Amino acid sequence: MDEETSTSAEMSTPAQTSRGGDGRLRPVVSETAARRRRRALRLLVLCVVVLVPWTVYLAFSLPDQFEARHWSAAWVGFDVLLLLSLAAAGLAVWQRRQALIPLSIVAGTLLVCDAWFDITLDWGTRDVWSSVAAAVLVELPLALLLFLRARRLYRITVRLAWERMGLPGEPPPLHRLPLFSGLDSLPPDGVSATSADQASEQASDQATEKGRSPR
């Protein structure tokens, strides 16, 4: 069985699922995906373990006031990143691209960070009220709009993937949604379901014949 036939057959296979002891539907994960998941989990746990004592240390060691260097470069650089993220999200809206989902999350997160730093750094000064007004009237509402938009598009994407993968019932809420390791089983662009089914049958026949032939 050649590589192209194997890939087509693999993509045409519906996502395999199983039910755990709690009755929830879970995808059957390949060994490669399981290894990647374990590596990602170890890395994230390590980051959390290191960040907790580091945050506690900073809370007790940082001074209340500090004379910063390159102050203008830090803020201008941050605003450039915010500008680029908003522009990229706008471009994704205009072109109707799926990249709008992560770009909206990035832009919304930067807006929340902008509001946080503006208020905390101006706290105790007369400029704090202008920072609070900008956060309440502009930055936080825009961030919320971007987050809600990304969530809505994500739900639509999940529903379409759920139906295309042949999973039963309705997709669960986002916080209970399993990783779609089965997305690798979707047909590639330009390959119809009929062609994929034919490739799957052909690959299965070839594998059967190969197993019967003498070595």
UniProtKB/TrEMBL annotation:
<feature type="region of interest" description="Disordered">
    <location>
        <begin position="185"/>
        <end position="215"/>
    </location>
</feature>
<feature type="transmembrane region" description="Helical">
    <location>
        <begin position="100"/>
        <end position="117"/>
    </location>
</feature>
<protein>
    <submittedName>
        <fullName>Uncharacterized protein</fullName>
    </submittedName>
</protein>
<feature type="transmembrane region" description="Helical">
    <location>
        <begin position="129"/>
        <end position="148"/>
    </location>
</feature>
<feature type="compositionally biased region" description="Polar residues">
    <location>
        <begin position="1"/>
        <end position="19"/>
    </location>
</feature>
<feature type="transmembrane region" description="Helical">
    <location>
        <begin position="40"/>
        <end position="60"/>
    </location>
</feature>
<keyword id="KW-0472">Membrane</keyword>
<feature type="region of interest" description="Disordered">
    <location>
        <begin position="1"/>
        <end position="25"/>
    </location>
</feature>
<feature type="compositionally biased region" description="Low complexity">
    <location>
        <begin position="192"/>
        <end position="206"/>
    </location>
</feature>
<feature type="transmembrane region" description="Helical">
    <location>
        <begin position="72"/>
        <end position="93"/>
    </location>
</feature>
<keyword id="KW-0812">Transmembrane</keyword>
<keyword id="KW-1133">Transmembrane helix</keyword>
